[in-house]
Write a structure and sequence with these properties.
There is one protein chain. The chain is an all-alpha fold. It has a domain of 217 residues. Helix content is 69%, strand content 2%. It has a two-stranded antiparallel sheet. Helix 3 packs antiparallel against helix 7, helix 3 packs across helix 8 and helix 4 packs parallel to helix 7. The relative contact order is 0.16.
Length: 327
């Protein structure tokens, strides 16, 4: 697959245009996103991804179009897990509802830039060392096990190294000042919590990228497709956050579905590594089978989760029990 320079530039240019439109038109009037508004924008981004898939199939062939669809679905489904973390971070930093869209937009831009760097590194490793698929496959097996055994532990915002670094070296205002990143308090310039939460979301996402980028490379070796799948998934993630806010607690089997997908792609990578580096005759999983498997697992996970209902909340040991004694 030979991607011309103009296509890379056009793709990046369209992404920048979407960010500009989002920042200066959609977010020109900070407000709380309604379910209807979020649903419209999710549909728009899904439609853009579908149009891009058709273009890929027309320009490069059906195989590459299928690789984009499978990579996009994998990235998007793994990104849903990010939404739980975003919700915890928003709560931890007490982000006002009207500012949450701006926080997610800037956080996603930071994440997209950092993911772009990781994709370039991954593509270079693959081009130089076919055996790197063994490493990617082993990492995905390990990640699948971690995801399967996880119980949605809440992340600690102060555990983010960059957030700690900024907090120690800059004065932080205790209050938000609209969507400003800095403000003056008693004549002293300070960063607002808005700046910290943007850093937290953008850099915390990189931890998820360490799982998802090898997973997409397990579906396609093309850096352009990996980048496009990440870009489309991330750009549609913000509105999905508002659409699924009330539904997040009901996706109780999501971690099991994601673990199965990661393990499947890990197996696919190891088989390809054996095929490329040895003379052993091993089966290679075709893209149509990968796409079918991913879709089936996602549908089964979603349906069984919704049928099972929301999980019962476990008591928080840090939260004091209400005093029910009579005076």
């Amino acid at each position: 697959m030979n991607v011309p320079t103009w296509m890379w530039l056009a793709t990046i240019g369209v992404l920048i245009a979407i960010i500009v439109v989002d920042l200066f038109i959609v977010d020109s009037r900070p407000h709380a996103f309604s379910t209807r508004e979020a649903g419209i924008w999710v549909t728009v981004y899904l439609s853009l991804a579908a149009v891009f898939a058709v273009f890929m199939a027309w320009y490069f062939g059906l195989a590459y179009g299928g690789q984009f669809v499978a990579g996009y679905l994998t990235e998007y489904s793994l990104s849903v897990d990010n939404l739980f973390v975003f919700l915890v971070l928003m709560t931890s930093f007490s982000v006002p509802v009207v500012l949450q869209h701006r926080v997610l937009l800037v956080g996603v831009v930071i994440a997209l830039i950092l993911r772009g760097v990781l994709i370039l590194i991954g593509a270079e490793l693959i081009a130089r060392f076919a055996g790197v698929f063994y490493l990617f496959g082993a990492f995905l097996f390990f990640t699948a096990w971690k995801v399967w055994t996880s119980h949605d532990e809440a992340p600690d915002p102060q555990g983010n190294g960059l957030v700690r670094f900024v907090s120690k070296r800059f004065a932080i205002s205790p209050h938000y000042d609209g969507n400003r990143l800095s403000t003056r308090v008693a004549g002293r310039r300070m960063l607002t919590p808005m700046a910290l939460v943007m850093i937290a979301i953008g850099t915390t996402d990189v931890l998820f990228a360490l799982d998802s980028i090898p997973a997409v490379f397990g579906i396609t070796h093309e850096a352009y497709i990996v980048f496009a799948a990440n870009a489309f998934a991330l750009m549609g993630l913000r509105q999905l956050y508002f659409l699924l806010q009330g539904l997040m607690g009901r996706l109780r089997y999501l971690n099991y579905g994601l673990a199965i997908i990661l393990a499947f792609i890990g197996a696919k990578l190891v088989l390809e590594a054996i095929h490329e580096t040895t003379s052993l005759q091993v089966p290679v999983i075709p893209i149509w089978l990968s796409l079918t498997f991913i879709v089936v697992v996602l549908v089964v996970t979603a349906v069984t989760s919704l049928l099972a209902g929301p999980q019962a909340e476990e008591p928080d040991p840090a939260r004091p029990e209400p005093d029910t004694s009579t005076p």
